[in-house]
Design brief:
The strands form 2 sheets. A 5-stranded antiparallel β-sheet has the order 1-5-4-3-2. It has a two-stranded antiparallel ribbon with strand order 6-7. The chain is α+β, with helices and mostly antiparallel strands and about 300 residues long. This is DNA-3-methyladenine glycosylase 2 family protein.
């Protein structure tokens, strides 16, 4: 068991991270929120390491305690630290977004309610790729349930305080399953074939390049994979890789969110992209995640 403090870019509110996690339906059941903290298992090689995350005693950030069945090497601890930091978006620089949003009167109430919110996302590329392959022509609920089944069958686990915590398996582990197993996970042959295509395709790309390479080049590479269309590529970029350069603003959920914030008619996707530029993904995340938040839990009022 080791403990360390991970710093976060300001402004940061861990309480809002927990609130966002509690409402993040695609990952329901993958973590346990306990009071002011959260416990989650992460994959380390073929093992599960459990992270206890709580507010930092001083400064913006979190206190992280790791639990493992053996002594972890410094490089192994560092790998889990990076995974936790990415999961909670600790290093995300929101300054450009906040500068634009701070001059956007319709966003004022939302910004007050969500001050310090960082994006929480899928804990690994494998988890996100599997979910977005399963959700195509399905529902969020079924895709999340099927994803949990993949983890339960294929993921390593560690039991703490009588509770089993399961780490999501690697892309390679999922891809190694035979067709019959993938059908059982996916529910039918068509979805199973798509799951294999997406998992094998994403596994063939360099993850570090996906996270840091030129946005349009990465997007083009994802769109070139079998089973990956514009929605899946955008979802992987924003909700898994944490890249805010783009968002599928033409989809109904973003149109509805814009209408709730700005009134009817809302700004067009082109107008929003023109205003927010390469931080449009943070706008999309804020209006989808926090537009119903108030400090007292009530709804942010719709613009007149």
């Amino acid at each position: 068991m080791t403990e360390v403090t991970l710093a976060a870019a300001e402004p940061f509110s861990f309480a809002l991270s927990l609130r966002a996690l509690a409402g993040f339906a695609p990952c329901a059941g993958g973590h346990v929120i306990t009071g002011s903290g959260v416990r989650k298992a992460f994959l380390l090689g073929a093992e599960a390491v459990v992270a206890d995350v709580s507010p930092a005693a001083e400064g913006p950030g979190v206190t992280l305690t790791l639990h493992a069945e053996r002594h972890l090497l410094p490089s192994e601890r560092a790998a889990v630290h990076r995974a936790v930091a990415h999961w909670l978006g600790l290093d995300d620089d929101l300054s450009a977004f906040l500068d634009v949003a701070g001059h956007d009167p319709a966003m004022a109430t939302l910004l007050r309610a969500a001050h310090g919110l960082h994006q929480v996302r899928f804990s690994s590329l494998a988890e996100g790729a599997v979910y977005f392959a399963l959700v195509q022509r399905s529902t969020q609920w079924y895709a999340a349930a099927r994803k949990r089944r993949v983890a339960a069958v294929l993921g390593p686990s560690l039991t703490l305080d009588g509770v089993e915590h399961i780490a999501f398996p690697s892309l390679a582990t999922v891809a190694a399953q035979d067709d019959a197993d993938l059908v059982r996970f996916a529910g039918n042959r068509l979805r199973a074939r798509r799951l294999r295509e997406v998992v094998e395709g994403v596994a063939g790309l360099d993850e570090q390049w996906l996270r840091t390479g030129p946005y349009e080049e990465v997007r083009k590479a994802l769109l070139g994979l079998p089973g990956v269309g514009p929605f899946t590529a955008s979802a992987l970029l924003l909700r898994v890789l944490g890249r805010p350069d783009g968002a599928p603003l033409g989809m109904a959920q973003f149109e509805d969110a814009a209408r709730a914030v700005y009134g009817d008619p809302p700004p067009s996707p082109a107008e929003l992209r023109g205003a927010y530029g390469s931080s449009i993904g943070w706008w999309a995340y804020y209006v989808r995640t926090a537009r119903n938040w108030q400090p007292d839990g009530s709804r942010v009022p719709v613009a007149a």
